[in-house]
Amino acid sequence: MAKIVIDPISRVEGHMKIEAVVENGVVKEAKSSGMMYRGLENILLGRDPRDAARIVQRICGVCPTSHGLAAAFALDEAYGVNGSITDNGRILRNLIQGANYVQSHILHFYQLAALDYVDVTACADYKGSDSDLKKVKDFIARGHLGPFVPRYEGDYRLSKEENLAAVGHYVKALNMRRLAHDAVAVFGGKMPHNMSIVAGGVTATPTIDKIAGFIWRMEQLIDFINSYYLPDVLMVANRYSDYFGIGAGCKQFMSFGCFDLDTNPDLTKRQRWLPQGIVSSDLKLTRLDPSKITEEVANSWFKETGPVHPYDGSTDADREKAGAYSWIKSPRYGGEVLEVGPLARMLASYASGDKAVQGQVNAVLGKFNASPSALFSVLGRHASRAIETKLVAEKLKDWALELQPGQPTFTDFNLDVNSRGMGLHEAPRGALGHWIVVEGGKTKNYQAVVPTTWNAGPMDAKGQPGPIEQSLIGTKVKDERNPFELVRIVRSYDPCLSCAVHVVTPKGENLGRFIVGAE
Amino acid sequence: MEAAALFAVDQPPLLVMAVGNILRMDDGFGDAVLNRLVELDLPDEVELFDAGTSAIDLMEVFNGREKLIVIDAVRGGQEPGTLYRFSPQEVEDGCLPMNSLHQVGLLETLKLGELVDCKPQETVVIGCQPEVTGLGIGLSETVKAQIERASELVLQEINNYFASKI
To answer: Are A396 and A184 in contact, with CB atoms under 8 Å apart?
Structure first.
């Protein structure tokens, strides 16, 4: 029996640790731990509730846009404007979030995930004339391996030509991500940490110039997604097709829904282009009931509360708690474990009968003679993310044309309230919920339940492991020194620990030789 | 389409960028220095930018600059309040202010930027050893006391830049 500890998992955002107990080459037990403390909600208490849409964006630098929007949805309800967001405000929010999906998914596949499958060292002896590949070759020659290592060795299966092409696309993707980031900023204003998403709508105003600039950028991005991103995912799937059978997980999914098409004050009934709901393993979609959401801390370093709804949640650390192994809580839905993310969203759309999603998903499955259950896998998550990127980018172009220059983007409201608000939203990496309690015009309680909490949370009081843990258990590990299977599984979820948890132990180096004398 | 044609570059040549998380007390050092600099009447060639915590997004921000001055809390193993000045080339990989909350940190972003010709010609980091980085808004007294001196160091860097142009 061997214990594999991967700490930290590189190329995930934040500090994550995986411990897997392997017996006869198969994972028997797995523990996913967030190694950073999170208690940022406490900062919001007693403040002006509107501050939440600014402060939550500082939780981390990966999904500030999504946190800002989730806070805005919660504040819409708290201030009673959740039924009266203007069309412009609604559409602008969709465009800002949608462009952020595109940049996040491109970054995830090329810069974070692809290096598990693509061998960058194939460029070391490159003799051709492609300027991007020559740059990577120079990079390697100078010993600048920073972004490409540490890595495991022994299971890179692409041909030399495929590796070279993929590395070229890695560089191209850096530029495309920049362009998508530019597109977020068109209506988000300053980036990172945009200033335009507020309770009641958006402060940016649509002009013909901005609309044209946004659409032009989306056209370049759609071209990249169709010509490179989707084909590259299929190329990886072709060489690593066994990963359609690896990393299944809990096979139950949840989406809070994203991209509003109306302003129904009830978020569970609001028509969203990516629908909300719970998807079962036989692809049945049922309605979302947010009152069933609880968080448990049975195996987390927090004071024991039992399962509590986020409105009643607390964030009191207890580092000495016996048996605990993570700073992440365990969210549950009616006591059930659920996976969130692009796979969950695409399955919800698929199950709801969305023809565009069904067409794309069936085309991918058809290429590999696979049934829909093959989607519950490492490759299913990557394929879902790529398909979503394409469909979102195309939709954003249409929505941008629905903007009406000169029409209002913001609805005003009364600040003196005693109320509550729920912000259900989807960040690129999954379901994101913010809950606020307002008393006397101040924030009395605030809780954020983030996607990686759902996916990377620890075992609950009933002994049910979290989704990533379930994905790991039962996995065959060919080489315990190079546990490719485990990092590929974890990375397919696009975990982001930065907001699930926060840093406690800094790694310091001595920089004494750079002291600037204090005069 | 060629990359250069996708990005219009029309921005001040000198960028002063505050990095760090204002929700982590002394990690808000860069932001505090930036707020001090905002009060001064700086030339048009200088842009002040609050970068927050999103390193990878900064590629766009420092693209095309002649000089980048980064202000950040730096853990360099010295007494709290110690000020540092160094360039990314002077420190080994991994000892830059990589305590940012990101795997794609500032140094990696600068490196990745090289691949897409998106790197400032010169980069210098002005850092301060933090005392407390727990959750909360506001600096410790020790770090607060260095805002003025750090602002002077940034101004010195700005002067050096203009002197090199003459």
So the answer is: no
